[in-house]
Structure formats: structure tokens, C-alpha cells
Amino acid sequence: MEFFSRIVGNLFARLDGPLHFRIILQPTVAIIFAIRDGWKDARQGRPPYFWALFTSTGSRADLLRDGWRSVSKIFIVACILDLVYQIIVQRFVYPGEILLTATILALIPYVLIRGPVNRIMRRR
């Protein structure tokens, strides 16, 4: 239980202090990339991204590769910035928290936005 309390406490501590600008900047960049890719998907007639991950079993690997190609740099920068944050503030590195923070700041916004942008652009 103490483990989860530490993780939650450390995650909320990131909202303040050094490098807190990344809490807004990284999801914004991920959303911009998701809009670009969702728009491209709509022009090429592809299904919405997140939905296709579950329904297109044959092309799931291609979809994951394409999504990772788009968001990997943002994810890596999120990991590096969180590593720097942990060294400065916590004076210890928690790799699991780095991956969790990068996922929250980069991957989740990307996956949540790309599909709806596709649907909106298809209707136009």
C-alpha cells in the first residue's frame, strides 16, 4: 500500500516545482501529432485509430508501429524530462514512475485524440 501511496504522491508532486511546464507542453505536442495523423487517416480512408487497434487484428502490428513512429520522440522526451525531474527533486530514479508519467503525458493524449479527429474530418 505504501508503494502506491508513494507513486500517487510523486505523480501529483510533478504538477508543481521544476519542469512543471512539461505537464502542459507534452500533452499539447502529442495532441498536435494526433491531429496531424488523424487527419491523414481520414484522407486515406482508414478507420479511427483506437477502434482499429481492437477490431483490425490483421493490421494491428502495422497500426502500433505507425502510432509508435509518430509518438516515440514525444515519449522519449517525456522520459528524459521526468528522469531529470526525479534527479533534481527526488534525488533518486524510479523507472516505473518515468514510464507511467511518459505514458500519461504522451501516449494517452495521442491515442485519445487521433481517432476522434479522423471521425470529425471524415464528416467534413
How would you sum up this structure in a few lines?
The protein is mainly α and 124 residues long. The protein has one domain. It has five helices and no strands.
Strand percent estimate: under 5%
How many strands, what sense, and barrel or not for the largest sheet? none
Q: Which whole number gives the mean pLDDT?
A: 89
Number of structurally distinct domains:
1
Q: Pairing-aware structural class of the strands and helices?
A: mainly alpha
Tell me, briefly, the overall form: elongated
**Topology order in helix (H) and strand (E) letters:** HHHHH
**Please, how many helices?**
5
Number of strands: 0
Straight-line N-to-C gap: 50 Å
Low-confidence stretches: none
Radius of gyration: 16 Å
The residue fraction in helices comes out at over 70%
Task: Describe the 3D structure.
It is a single chain. This protein has one domain (2-123). With 124 residues, it is mostly helical. It has helices spanning 2-13, 22-43, 49-55, 60-90, 95-123. It starts with a helix and ends with a helix. The model has no long low-confidence stretch (mean pLDDT 89). The chain is elongated. Helices cover 81% and strands 0% of the residues. The longest helix has 31 residues, at 60-90.
